[in-house]
Inverse folding.
């Protein structure tokens, strides 16, 4: 029986899921159970997933929530550790799973999450968000004193999920909510920059707006007394646009992103404002992680991955050939 179960949630991910599964097949840890939870895809997602050694589960679109899909996958999982990945991510290195699970040697680690970066289709502002949320500075942040994490690239102990399942009523941020409930039980979170993935977002402005609106609705449910006023919208929109322009200028990509930066930030914070008629206290550190712009100090990558083996995505992930 595999010690590790990988849960992938998906809906109409035919462009991406094959690449993720191909990357999993090339990991240094091979004895894994892969569970794909599909929420009513109308494209080739299920047939592509079926070419790989996966357990394919289905949930009706009208019954979907992020927490419900995860709970369904966790119920079917047999591994001691559960790796969670979005269908539109893919690992860079062959030791992704190995690195992500390494902190669990400490019995007090409940959850790990890895670094995320965008690709060439990602909006410039999203690259800045990834750099803020997932910095390079430390190997493990084991005593993280706020419950930030991200289930696009994370792992948990199955035994803890059995005691604390995901909230199925939330419209997003089920990962943050789970971490918030598990930390008071004496457990900690580890951030693992070396467990790096590429997170592909190909979103229209409307989809960006919708994503941040539903996450704000979830955040106000998790923190009922938190506030996000119109002044917050104006202040955070302005400061983040200025920060993005600063970094874009220094990166030599100011002109191509002149319009995309304010559009993205407008959709982000207007969606947040519209979804956030809330009450509840959020820690300053968590608020800073979610909303505030990157530091204006120069970006430095403190890691060297020269000796790590890259995953070969040269062969088509959409090949009709089965890979059992």
């Amino acid at each position: 029986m595999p010690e590790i179960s990988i849960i992938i949630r998906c809906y109409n991910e035919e462009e991406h899921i094959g690449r993720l599964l191909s990357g999993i097949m090339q990991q240094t840890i091979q004895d894994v159970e892969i569970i794909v939870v599909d929420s009513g895809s109308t494209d080739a997602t299920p047939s592509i997933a079926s070419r790989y050694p996966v357990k394919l589960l289905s949930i009706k679109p009208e019954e979907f929530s992020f927490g419900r899909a995860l709970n369904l996958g966790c119920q079917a999982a047999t591994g001691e550790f559960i790796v969670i990945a979005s269908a539109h991510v893919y690992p860079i290195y062959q030791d992704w799973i190995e690195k992500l699970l390494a902190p669990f040697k400490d019995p007090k680690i409940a959850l790990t999450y890895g670094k995320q970066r965008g690709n060439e289709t990602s909006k410039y502002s999203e690259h800045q968000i990834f750099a803020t949320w997932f910095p390079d500075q430390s190997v493990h942040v084991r005593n993280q004193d706020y419950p930030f994490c991200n289930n696009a690239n994370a792992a948990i102990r199955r035994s803890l999920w059995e005691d604390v399942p995901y909230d199925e009523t939330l419209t997003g941020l089920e990962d943050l909510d789970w971490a918030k409930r598990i930390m008071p039980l004496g457990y900690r979170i580890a951030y693992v920059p070396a467990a790096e993935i590429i997170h592909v977002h190909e979103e229209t402005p409307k989809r960006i707006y919708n994503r941040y609106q539903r996450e704000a609705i979830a955040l106000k449910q998790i923190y009922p007394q938190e506030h996000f006023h119109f002044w917050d919208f104006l202040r955070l929109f302005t400061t983040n646009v200025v920060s993005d322009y600063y970094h874009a200028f220094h990166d030599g990509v100011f002109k191509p992103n002149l319009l995309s930066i304010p559009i993205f930030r407008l959709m982000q914070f207007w969606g947040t404002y519209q979804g956030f008629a809330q009450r509840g206290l959020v820690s300053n550190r968590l608020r800073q992680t979610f909303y505030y712009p990157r530091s204006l100090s120069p970006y430095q990558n403190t890691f060297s991955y020269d000796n790590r083996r890259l995953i070969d995505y040269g062969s088509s992930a959409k090949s009709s050939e089965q890979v059992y």
User: Anything to note?
Assistant: Residues 316-324 have pLDDT under 50 and may be disordered. The longest helix spans residues 230-251. DSSP finds eleven helices and eight strands in the chain.
